[in-house]
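Figure caption, in words: inputs first, then the predicted bound structure.
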Amino acid sequence: MLLGCIADDFTGATDLANTLVRQGMRTVLLLGVPAEGQAVDADAVVVALKSRTIPAGEAVDQSLAALRWLRDNGAHQFFFKYCSTFDSTDDGNIGPVTEALLDVLGKDFTIACPAFPTTGRTIYLGHLFVGDLLLSDSSMRNHPLTPMTDSNLAHVLGRQTQGRIGLVAHRTVSHGAAAIAQEFDRLHGDGCVAAIVDAIDDGDLMAIGHAAADLKLVTGGSGVAMGLPDNFRRAGLLTRAGAADALDPVDGLEAVIAGSCSAATIGQVAEMGGVHPMFRVDPAALAAGEDVAGAALDWATAKLAKGPVLIYSTDQPDAVVAVQGKLGREEAGALVEDAMAKIARGLADAGVRKLVVAGGETSGAVVQALGVTALRIGPEIDPGVPWTQSLGDPPIALALKSGNFGAPDFFVKALRMLP
Ligand code: ADP
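Bound structure (adenosine-5'-diphosphate present):
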């Protein structure tokens, strides 16, 4: 393993793993800290935690446990991934986790660069922009858990760390990797524990990545990780021939589970429903105590041999609001997630080995129900959504899609991509 990564949430971890694969590193995503002794064959490993909004002390403990495992498994360099909008409060967790990781690694300097220009997150003179707005003027100002009311990242991070925070301004970044690395050295010598690094486009991120080749710990969004794989290649450490996104072929039946009600998923359900059989999971029937999962599985078992089936709870916004009004938002969500999890397990028992899941929470419930703890990242289906394959027996090909991702033909296209 060359690069060992710790991500503070699951979707961020997937995003980072996907980025590393596109840059040529074979990458495995681990859901939570693996058991001691569990080995993984990959160039990069991303440990997905759920540590973004838990108390800082717990976030530190979990991150250090992940670090220990990554170190024991030979990682050369470490990456701490957080959100591109720097989601955190003055009590943590980005600062405390960063300082704790540095401490254990015996280092006293790193960088902090959440920029992700492709999604509109840029940093200029240390200020984070979301699209055309300063972070503090964006909708992040009203985030329920981590309201971001200060765009000056040096100030935000400084309130979370013991050490001082410096800035590598764009006038330096624009001069390329050598100039940036020199500025890292200067700020380190000045006693800064971390430097915010300006970045307004992908060229900046690549240069920053190259400048970070000798840092034991790098922190930021998945954008700044783009430049890291090339460092290993230049050092002769990443020499494998063949595609980084290759997955072993899996043999088995195909299904789609859609538990998202986002606009993109509504379109994808309509498109697949036009060509393949589909079954609707009705929240009202679940609330009435009917065995909807059992009915869905009986229905599916009769059809699976002939081709893929679609099982969905996806509905139009007004219908979702009506159901939530009756059952409560969280209760409705939990009822449907629980049914989708049972259905996923039943489908796997029936021989499904190629499964597309739509919905972030739904994916979490399905992965847990299937007992999946590690995923190898494969080829991209649509931007940001790769095929993955569970490690373990039997391997299952899984496409886990956040609700609003993907083109209207996503489900059909995804299944067609697999041999
Ligand atoms: P997304 O990625 O689009 O946000 P999620 O799976 O994360 O999708 O969230 C969708 C939530 O809505 C889940 O909790 C799911 O159980 C719930 N849900 C799905 N279908 C319905 C429905 N018809 N009515 C009410 N809630 C639903």
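The chain has a mean pLDDT of 95.
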